Amino acid sequence: PKVTIKSAVFVGSAVERAGYPGESLPEVAFAGRSNVGKSSLINCLLGTKKLVRTSRTPGRTQTINFFRINDAFFFVDLPGYGYAKVPAAVRARWGPMMETYLKERRTLRAVVQILDFRHPPTPDDLALWNWLQATGVLTLPVLTKADKVKKSLRSKNLAQAAAALALTSCDLIVFSAVTREGRDLLWDRLMPLVVP
Ligand code: GTP
Ligand code: MG
């Protein structure tokens, strides 16, 4: 069944747990390196251009941002990692902020981990992936910016990412916020997680 977005509302940003909205609805969070395309992917899924702020400047999203969709579930835009120019104070709080959220959010159903299809996973990508596996968080890996990858490189890049994550290629969703490739497939995997 195709998902219809009836409403998508920004409900707030948080750094501390006290700032999270109540644990009343199922939730999916989106994580990845700074500038990888997290906010664009969320906008693409929702069919909105501007609900989630996107930017050419990496490290723009520095807090945990909650969006309520159809009054039925939350999407959560997590701050990106791996960008050296983010101020040291912001970088220092990233780890505890993420760890608290990912470990303690009882309504969290899955994390969509977004990777750049153009390049192999970075050490930071692998560190998050391994931590999520070890912590037992269901993680859906998505390879984005597929519109930037030549046809001739797709299967090589896919195999490379799968090997790095110890998965098979069919576990990975190839995505583009520009062409919307992978959008329906990702929704197919998300739907069962967010419907009651
Ligand atoms: P931070 O919030 O800074 O961590 O970044 P982000 O991961 O939310 O990335 P964002 O969605 O802001 O996108 C970063 C840049 O990549 C922007 O210039 C986007 O237009 C571009 N971008 C995002 N997704 C795609 C995609 O699928 N294809 C192409 N070609 N560009 C993309
Ligand atoms: Mg962002």
UniProtKB/TrEMBL annotation:
<dbReference type="InterPro" id="IPR030393">
    <property type="entry name" value="G_ENGB_dom"/>
</dbReference>
<keyword id="KW-0547">Nucleotide-binding</keyword>
<dbReference type="InterPro" id="IPR027417">
    <property type="entry name" value="P-loop_NTPase"/>
</dbReference>
<dbReference type="GO" id="GO:0005525">
    <property type="term" value="F:GTP binding"/>
</dbReference>
<dbReference type="GO" id="GO:0005829">
    <property type="term" value="C:cytosol"/>
</dbReference>
<comment type="function">
    <text>Necessary for normal cell division and for the maintenance of normal septation.</text>
</comment>
<feature type="domain" description="EngB-type G">
    <location>
        <begin position="24"/>
        <end position="196"/>
    </location>
</feature>
<keyword id="KW-0479">Metal-binding</keyword>
<keyword id="KW-0460">Magnesium</keyword>
<keyword id="KW-0342">GTP-binding</keyword>
<dbReference type="GO" id="GO:0000917">
    <property type="term" value="P:division septum assembly"/>
</dbReference>
<comment type="similarity">
    <text>Belongs to the TRAFAC class TrmE-Era-EngA-EngB-Septin-like GTPase superfamily. EngB GTPase family.</text>
</comment>
<keyword id="KW-0717">Septation</keyword>
<dbReference type="InterPro" id="IPR019987">
    <property type="entry name" value="GTP-bd_ribosome_bio_YsxC"/>
</dbReference>
<dbReference type="InterPro" id="IPR006073">
    <property type="entry name" value="GTP-bd"/>
</dbReference>
<keyword id="KW-0132">Cell division</keyword>
<protein>
    <recommendedName>
        <fullName>Probable GTP-binding protein EngB</fullName>
    </recommendedName>
</protein>
<keyword id="KW-0131">Cell cycle</keyword>
<dbReference type="GO" id="GO:0046872">
    <property type="term" value="F:metal ion binding"/>
</dbReference>
<dbReference type="Pfam" id="PF01926">
    <property type="entry name" value="MMR_HSR1"/>
</dbReference>
